[in-house]
Write a structure and sequence with these properties.
Blueprint lengths: L1 H24 L1 H7 L3 E6 L2 E8 L8 E6 L2 E4 L2 H4 L12 E2 L27
Antiparallel strand pairs: 1-2, 2-3, 3-4, 4-5
Length: about 120
C-alpha cells in the first residue's frame, strides 16, 4: 500500500507543478484577453495587483497571493448585478493541498469528533 500511496502522491505533486507552471506560463496568453494589472485604492494608498484568468474554473480575478490562492472579485463584476457569478467569486484557501479537480458525485464529507448522532 505504501507504493500506491507514493505513486498517488507523485502524481498529485506533478499535477500541482503543472498547474503552477500554467499559472506562470499561461499568464501571457490570458494577458491578451484581460488587463494584466489593476490599481486598487487602499487605505494606505494605491497599490497595483496582477489580474489572472488562468486559475481553474475562474474568469479574470485579482491576485492577492497565488500560493495558497487568494483571489478577489474585480470591482466591475459588482456593477453587473446583485449576485456574483461562481466563476468570479472570491477564493480563500488556507491549506497547502490544492485540489485541481473534484467529482461532486463521489465527494463525501465526513464529520468526526465530539458530535451527537441520530438527530
Amino acid at each position: 500500500m505504501d507504493r500506491l500511496d507514493s505513486l498517488l502522491a507523485s502524481r498529485l505533486a506533478r499535477r500541482r507543478l503543472l498547474a503552477l507552471g500554467g499559472l506562470a506560463g499561461g499568464g501571457a496568453i490570458a494577458a491578451a484577453a484581460t488587463p494584466s494589472r489593476v490599481r486598487l485604492m487602499l487605505a494606505q494608498g494605491a497599490e497595483e495587483r496582477p489580474i489572472a484568468a488562468d486559475f481553474a474554473g475562474k474568469k479574470a480575478m485579482i491576485v492577492q497571493r497565488n500560493r495558497p490562492p487568494l483571489l478577489e472579485t474585480p470591482m466591475e463584476v459588482f456593477d453587473r448585478g446583485v449576485f456574483t457569478p461562481n466563476d468570479q467569486f472570491c477564493v480563500r484557501w488556507h491549506w497547502a493541498d490544492i485540489p485541481l479537480e473534484m467529482d461532486a458525485q463521489k465527494f463525501r464529507l465526513e464529520i468526526g469528533g465530539h458530535v451527537r448522532q441520530g438527530h
